Amino acid sequence: MDGTGRTVRDAVVVTNADTIVSVGTGANAVPRGARVIDLRRYTGIPGMIDAHTHITYYWDGTAGTDPWRQSGRQRSQVTVFLAQENARRTLETGVTTIRDLGASDYSDLAMRDLINRGAMVGPRVFAAGYGLHRAPATTQPNAPPGPPRGRLTGVDDVAAAVKAQVDAGADVIKVYGSTGSGADVTGNETLTYDEMKAIVDAAHAAGKRVAIHSYGPDGGRDAVRAGAESLEHAIDLDDSTLVRMVAQGTFYVPTIDHNRYYAEYHQQFNYTPAQVAALDSFRLRNIETARRALKAGVKFAMGSDAVFNMFGQNTHELGWYTQIGMTPAQALATATTNGAALLGMEKKLGAVAPGYFADLVAVDGDPLADIHVVIDKVRWVMKGGRVVVDRR
Known about the structure:
The protein is α/β, with parallel strands linked by helices. The protein has one domain (48-346): Alpha-Beta Barrel (TIM Barrel). The chain has helices spanning 67-71, 76-82, 84-92, 107-116, 158-168, 193-205, 217-226, 239-248, 256-264, 266-269, 273-296, 317-323, 328-334, 337-343, 372-376, and strands at 11-16, 19-25, 43-46, 48-53, 95-100, 124-127, 133-134, 151-152, 172-176, 209-213, 230-232, 251-253, 299-300, 360-363, 378-383, 386-390. The chain has a five-stranded parallel beta sheet with strand order 9-10-11-12-13, sandwiched between helices. Strands 3-14-15-16 form a four-stranded antiparallel beta sheet. The protein is globular and about 65 Å long.
C-alpha cells in the first residue's frame, strides 16, 4: 500500500541512501547486484507520522517517583540521553516521523539534531521548542535572563516570543490556548483571539506553521478563526467552527487516546478516582466531537500526545478513528498522507514513491481489513533507508 490509495502486488521498492528510487513489481524490477530484503509475507505501508508527541518526557519507573515530578528534577542533558528509549519505542510502532509539540530547554531540538546527524537512533523530528502560553500572574524576580521561554502577558510580547522559537531553530510554533494537561481537563481559554491571531501572523511571516492546544470549545473556536494549521485536543466544537475548519483546511488532532492512557496508568500518576472519572468523561466527549468532525468533512492527523511510557503506544489512536466511523484506509491516511500534508512534506513523506524518503513499514496482515494490524503487528521498519526495527 503506497499511501496514494494504490495497492501494489509483488511490489519491489528500490532505495538508494535515504530515498526511494523506484517502485515496481516482480523479479524484473530488482536491479542487478542489489541487496534484497525479502518481505513478501508481509504488507508494506509508508512510515507513519505521529503529529503530537512530547518525546523528551521520560520516566524510568523508579519506585516512589511519579512521571511528572521526576522529569521536572532532571537536567535537560540527562533527559535527552534517557529519552533515546522513547525514540526507540516510537520506531517500533512504525512511526518514523514525529511532530514534537513542546519541551523545556529546547531539548526536543537537541534530539532532532542528534538524530539527524546519526548520533542517536529515532524518528525524524519536527520540533516546537517552548510552547507559547499565558505568563503566570507573578514572575519570579530571579528569573533567568534570555528568551521569554514562551511566556506571554499580551499581544506586545508575541513578536519576541515567536522570534525566540524561530531563532532557536523551531520547525513549528506550539501555542497553549487553554488549560488542560494530565488530569486537568478543564479547558478554560487562556489566550484571547487577538493574541492567537498575532501569534499565527508572526509565525506565518517567519515561514512557520502553528499548532494550538485547546481542550475546550472557546479556545478551539478562536484557534481556528486565527488560522492555525492544526487544532489539538478540543471537544464540544460548534458546527460553525467545524464548517470553518473544512473551508480553511484546518487539521484536527483530537488525541483521544492520551486520556485513555492517563486513566489506565492512573496509579503511576497518583490520580484520584474522581480525576480518572473526569478523564473518562472527557474522552467520551472527545470521541463524540471527533465523530461530528468526521461527518462534517474535517481533515484529521493522527497524534498520540505521547508522554513517558506511552511511547510504544503511538498508533493506538487509529483504533479510535475506526470506532468513530473511518474505514481502516481513512485511519491509515491520518498517519501517512494527512500527517505529511500537515507538516508541509507532501512530496517527501507519507507515501511509497520515487523521490520520497525511504520510510517503509512491514506489517503482518491486511491493514485495509483491520487497522489493528497496523497497531499490533509491525514486524519491520526502515527509516531513511536504514533498517531500524527487525522483528521478523
